[in-house]
Amino acid sequence: MAVPKNEEIKRGSLTAVGTGIRVIGQLTVESIASMKNAEKLLYCVGDPIAEHVVQSLNKDGAESLFGFYAEGKPRAETYEQMIQRMLECVRAGLKTCVALYGHPGVFAWPAHEAIRRARADGYEARMLPGISAEDCLFADVGIDPAMTGCQSYEATDFMINGRIIDTSSTVILWQIGVLGDWSFKSGAYDTSSMPLLLERLAQYYPANHQAIIYEASVFPGCAPIIRYIPLFSLPYAGVTAASTLCIPPARSPSIDMNIRMRMPQSCN
Question: Which class does domain 133-247 fall in?
C-alpha cells in the first residue's frame, strides 16, 4: 500500500542507558535526555529511589521490566523476555529507551542482545555508557588498573571455564554471592559452592592472602562496604548478591629483560 506523501514513515529505535549505581548524582546528562525524549521508557533498576527518578523523567512512557523476574525462574528465560519486550516496542515504531542499573553493557546481556537484534533488523540502536560497580570500586578502594593491571571475571565463569590468573595483577570476581546459581532469588542465594571457589583460588594464592569484599553504595550519604579478609575465610564472610571480591596482587610482575633492553633508553 502506498504511503501518502504528506505522511512520514515512522521507524522505531533503541537506546540503552545506565542509571549508575547511585541514580542521584550518577545519571549522565545524555542518559537523562534519552529517557525524557523516549516514546517508551523501559527500565529495570535495583532500588525504589532509582525507580522514582526514572518514572519522573517519563511519566507517560515508563514501564518496569522487573516483573519478568520470578522466584526460582532461570535468569536466561527472564532475559529473553526482556529482550522480546524491547524489540516489540521498537518494531511498533516507538523511539524506545531502556534504562538499566549501573552501566547498561556491564553484566547486562539483554541490552547487548536487543541492540544486536534491532540492528540486524535494520533499526537504529545504540548504547550510552554509565557508571558501573567497577568504576565505584576503583574510586572507593583506591585502585588504578593502569598500575597493576586488572583481570575481571564473573565468579561462576571463572570457576567453570578454567580462567587463568596473573597474580601480579589485581583480580576482580563479580557476583560471588550467586555462585553457580542460574535462577532468580528474592532473598539469599545458595552459597554452598563457595568452598569450590576457594579451592580454585588456592591454586594461585596462599590461604592467608588478604582480599576485599566490596559492595558499592546505592544511596547518597551511605558509605560503601569494604571488608578486608584472608581468603581462607571467604566461605564464612557472609557475602550477598551484591558482593564483589577484589584480590590485590600477590607478587611483583616478572620483567622481560630482553624486551626492556630493546626499548628506547628512556623506558629503561
Answer: alpha beta
All CATH 3.40.1010.10 domain ranges of the chain, comma separated, are 13-127
Q: Domain 13-127 has what CATH class?
A: alpha beta
User: What do you get for the CA distance between the two ends of the chain, in Å?
Assistant: 72
Q: How far is CA 25 from the centre of its chain?
A: 18
Active site residue 214: no
Catalytic entry in 43, 69, 101, 214? 101
Give how far Cα 98 sits from Cα of 30, 112, 127, 241, Å: 13, 11, 9, 23
pLDDT of residue 116 exceeding 80: yes
pLDDT in tens, 20-54: 999 999 999 999 999 999 999 999 998 899 999 99
Told to judge if 79 belongs to the known catalytic residues of this protein, a careful annotator would answer yes
Which listed residue (79, 123, 205, 214) is catalytic? 79
